[in-house]
Design a protein that fits this description.
Mean pLDDT: 83
Strand content: under 5%
Order of helices and strands: HHHHHHHHHHHHHHHHHHH
Keywords: Membrane, Transmembrane, Transmembrane helix
CATH superfamily of the largest domain: MFS general substrate transporter like domains
Organism: Brevibacterium picturae
Largest sheet: none
Number of strands: 0
Structural class: mainly alpha
Pfam families: MFS_1
Helix content: over 70%
Distance between the termini: 19 Å
Low-confidence stretches: 1-12, 199-208
Protein name: MFS transporter
CATH architecture of the largest domain: Up-down Bundle
Length: about 400
């Protein structure tokens, strides 16, 4: 590097800030508020049936509420990456509190649906702001994985406590309102978007990530991640159908799903512990290939015990890859230009995963369903690796500014 380049790089600092208790709590709690509705989907379905809707109507209400949340997340992503991030999060969470409170206490079915829809749209802003805020923190691998672990642990607590209190409007929708309220209280701690983010070219003349490549990689991850997630969620949401086909008992299936959630958290913990040392491109490639093989195997097996084990394994691989995808998007830009809309894009795709999966099983059979879901993972390996390399190139360039080595 020339002396001019050295002096230029020295004048610019890495805009990302270290993970601390306050900014970490804000990112993790706001993220939890944005995703809690999806996590409580089975309980929401039960309460909607209590209110007076049948299974089909309840499913439609939940699907379109999640879709509304995802659309708001996508629509607000640009603002989440700017100077009004905290204001956007606060306004969205206030709307969430009000909407979920209406659904909690008013007996009218139409008002319950309206409240749930308004609340869901409100927390869509939490999806974009928490996703964008992750990019403002150093070591996106560790931050995204820690967020995933915290999210799963808190969800496990909520899922354990709410049924004990009793499934009702006040407990289930009230839990959504309470989590939104707690998250609202810490929005002031969200890390702000950097006013200036040096490009890879500005910081390092021989950088591997030019601004054009970053933009291409950003749009690509917004396409690849939802496609991959849809194939994963189709297997997850249709696990009962797959279990019925091989005579897997409800008790064993329930145990497998619970174990999958716990082991998935352990997979996220691995990324938390090793952080950026494991890189992104290679582990993502391995995860997608392994996940593709397991999904094909799931479609072919006729042994209930094998299916139960495969469900646990495929969700473990999924959890590992999920946090690395988020880290990849966060690594592309410290303002959160790409990580802000990422979860919203994912939820849009996953909202239709049950419909797509059911259509494939009904029309082509379970074996072809598993094969197609596996092929999706294989097809996405190369673009995922290319995106991940651009992401690590950007982070390497920023770390070069403060002398911190970054593995390839």
């Amino acid at each position: 590097m020339s002396s001019a380049s050295i002096s230029s790089a020295a004048a610019v600092e890495d805009p990302r800030v270290p993970l601390q208790l306050r900014n970490g709590s804000a990112v993790f709690l706001v993220s939890l508020a944005g995703l809690m509705m999806a996590n409580l989907a089975p309980l929401i379905m039960s309460v909607l049936e209590q209110v007076g809707f049948d299974v089909v109507a309840s499913g439609n209400i939940l699907t379109w509420t999640l879709f509304a949340s995802a659309v708001v997340g996508l629509g607000t992503a640009r603002f989440a990456a700017g100077s009004h991030r905290r204001t956007l999060a606060a306004v969205g969470l206030i709307i969430g509190v009000l909407g979920f409170s209406v659904a909690s206490f008013l007996p009218s079915p139409s008002l319950v649906v309206a409240g749930l829809g308004i609340g869901g749209a409100g927390v869509g802003a939490a999806i974009s702001t928490s996703g964008a805020a992750i990019a403002a923190l150093k070591n996106p691998n560790r931050v995204s994985a820690t967020s995933g672990v915290v999210n799963r642990l808190l969800v496990m607590v909520v899922l354990a406590v709410v049924p004990v209190l009793g499934l009702a409007q006040a407990t289930v929708f009230g839990a959504l309102a309470l989590i939104s309220l707690i998250s609202l209280a810490v929005t002031l701690w969200l890390p702000a978007a950097p006013e200036f983010v040096p490009s890879a070219v500005e910081s390092e003349p021989r950088a591997t990530a030019s601004p054009r490549r970053v933009v291409v990689a950003g749009f690509a991850v917004l396409i690849v991640f939802p496609l991959w997630g849809t194939s994963e969620d189709a297997v997850w949401t249709l696990a009962p159908v797959l279990g019925d086909a091989v005579s897997l008992s409800e008790q064993t299936l329930g145990f497998a799903l619970s174990a999958a959630a716990g082991v998935g958290a352990a997979a996220m913990l691995v990324v938390t512990l090793f952080g950026k040392r494991i890189g992104r491109a290679t582990p993502l490639a391995i995860a997608l290939i392994l996940g593709g093989i397991i999904k094909i195997w799931i479609g072919m097996t006729d042994d209930p015990g094998t299916l139960a084990v495969l469900i646990v394994v495929v969700n473990t691989v999924y959890a590992f890859a999920f946090v690395l995808f988020i880290a990849t998007a966060a690594g592309l830009d410290a303002r959160g230009t790409w990580s802000g809309p990422l979860i919203g894009a994912y939820v849009v795709g996953s909202s239709f995963a049950p419909i797509i999966g059911a259509w494939l099983i009904d029309g082509l059979g379970i074996q072809m369903f598993g094969t197609i879901m596996g092929i999706v993972s294989f097809v996405l390996v190369i673009p995922t690796v290319l995106i991940a390399r651009v992401s690590t190139g950007v982070e390497r360039s920023l770390n070069h500014l403060d002398g911190t080595p970054t593995p390839r």
